[in-house]
Amino acid sequence: MRIIPAIDIIEGKCVRLSKGDYDSKKIYNEHPLEVAKEFEAHGIEYLHLVDLDGAKSKHIVNHKVLEQIASQTKLKIDFGGGLKTDDDLRIAFESGASQVTGGSIAVKDRDTFLGWIQKHGAEKIILGADALDEKVAVSGWQEESKEELLPFVQNYQQEGIKYVICTDISKDGMLEGPSFDLYKKILSTVSSKGVENRIENSLKLIASGGISSFDELPRLAEIGCEGTIIGKAIYENRISLKQLKDYILNK
Fold first, then answer.
1. How many CB atoms lie within 10 A of CB 121?
2. Rg for the chain (alpha carbons), in Å?
3. Distance between CA 70 and CA 92 in Å, rounded?
4. N or C: which end of the chain has fewer CB within 10 A?
5. Integer CA distances (angstroms), 177 to 7, 47, 63, 191, 214, in order
């Protein structure tokens, strides 16, 4: 299972929110590049970089932070937040993103999102399926859509999507543990649906939200998660970078 630390950006600074509430913002470092370099120094290869300003304003904002990290580390960066147009996507890739995550656009502008998958391939486009009570949320989690989580994921799997990041919003930033049952449900449902429709079940589910201790990581791997995104647990020293380094070296 891939270990993917998160850096969330507001006004160019590394922050964390609780349950997506912008009023709960806590600044952990004013220099995201320093944080990224520390991750890389501990053997980490991947980074989940979220433009929270972009998510709120509905267009890419913090692409300079992306460019800085991409040009000064070898981290493979998944970038999300505010990607709404082909131009936003172009800026993200030109700034150094290895992959991009589309959440709101996958709900609100299906044709554009499908066009991204067709143009750039399923290895580069990640479906952001962030949900509260199994309803997909959009616009930086400021809105709840009418989309049911499981059919939403299944539908895009049939369209060729491979990578899905699923955040249980009720868990995010709360340090109370991830939604093991939800991830089991997604993987078992998608797997059975894939067999039924003769779709190769190659969904790579990335768990996000609520990670609070190192012991949760092997459990997520056992369920079948392809990766896990870890944010506040690192910044609050619940999980040390040494533990993650050892996990990566020994897996």
1. 11
2. 17
3. 11
4. C
5. 19, 21, 31, 24, 10
Please report the beta strands in 108-186, taking only residues with DSSP state E, as ranges in sequence order: 125-128, 131-132, 135-138, 143-148, 163-167
Tokens representing 108 are 């609100």
Question: Tell me, what's the pLDDT at 144?
Answer: 65
Catalytic residue among 78, 88, 130, 168: 130
| 246 tagged catalytic | no
Residue 228 forms beta bridges with which residues? 3, 207
Identity (one letter) of the amino acid at 124?
Answer: K
Residues of the chain with pLDDT under 50: 194-200
- Based on the residue annotation, tell me whether 130 is a catalytic residue of this protein: yes
Question: What is the signed CA dihedral for 152, 199, 126, 17, rounded to 10 degrees?
Answer: 50
CA angle 207, 186, 123 (to 5 degrees): 60
Q: Is beta strand 135-138 parallel, antiparallel or unpaired with respect to 143-148?
A: antiparallel
Distance CA 6, CA 4 (A): 6
- pLDDT tens digit string along 37-88? 999 999 999 999 999 999 888 899 999 999 999 999 999 999 999 999 999 9
CA distances to 31, 127, 137, 139 from 115, rounded to whole Å, are 35, 13, 22, 20
Question: Which one of the listed residues 8, 51, 88, 172 is annotated catalytic?
Answer: 8
**Residues near 124 by Cβ (< 8 Å), separated by ≥ 6?**
93, 98, 99, 100
